[in-house]
């Protein structure tokens, strides 16, 4: 099976770390409460920050948060099991789009944990195009918009939903998961 996989919030716990620094930036630096929708996965939609404020956050916090991130709990164990069963993993991520150092840092985290994927697509804005090109059997992503787009285009999708993120209706093409054990159960049993 060809498994498409996002990195942030799926393999690396960076989304939780990013959100922590978003709150610090909003409360301590901006001295306000600019949160408009905590169900949104990306800070550009979570807060009503100006473009200058967004750029300030990116410049001062994004790489710092990335450096503090780790592998998601349970990922290494499930990844090794699935690799032993001959599944192929293709990384499809937007990471690296803000800074090349973000991509480099992700590779550092993966190397430190002895994880090497079969193929990498970095700085991707259109994940659907890559999934079609690669004939992905199942995509794992934590962004509800991407999960919905995949399932709407009949690509089986596991929506790795963090607690506050938007809930989606499940169907034959989309299932919600919250940990790597659930992902393993679905891949072993089909979606």
Task: List the SSEs and their pairings.
Blueprint: E1 2-5, H1 14-29, H2 43-46, H3 51-67, H4 75-84, E2 88-92, H5 100-112, E3 119-121, H6 127-134, E4 138-141, H7 144-152, E5 156-160, E6 174-177, H8 180-189
Helix pairs in contact: 1-3, 3-5
Description:
The structure is a single chain. The protein has 191 residues and is of the alpha/beta class. The mean pLDDT is 94. It has helices spanning 14-29, 43-46, 51-67, 75-84, 100-112, 127-134, 144-152, 180-189, and strands spanning 2-5, 88-92, 119-121, 138-141, 156-160, 174-177. The chain folds into 2 domains: 2-13 and 70-189, HAD superfamily/HAD-like (Rossmann fold, 3-Layer(aba) Sandwich), CATH 3.40.50.1000; 14-67, no CATH class. The longest helix is centred in the N-terminal third of the chain and has 17 residues, at 51-67. Strand 4, helix 7 (144-152) and strand 5 form a beta-alpha-beta unit. The two termini are 13 Å apart. The chain has 8 helices and 6 strands, in the order E-H-H-H-H-E-H-E-H-E-H-E-E-H.
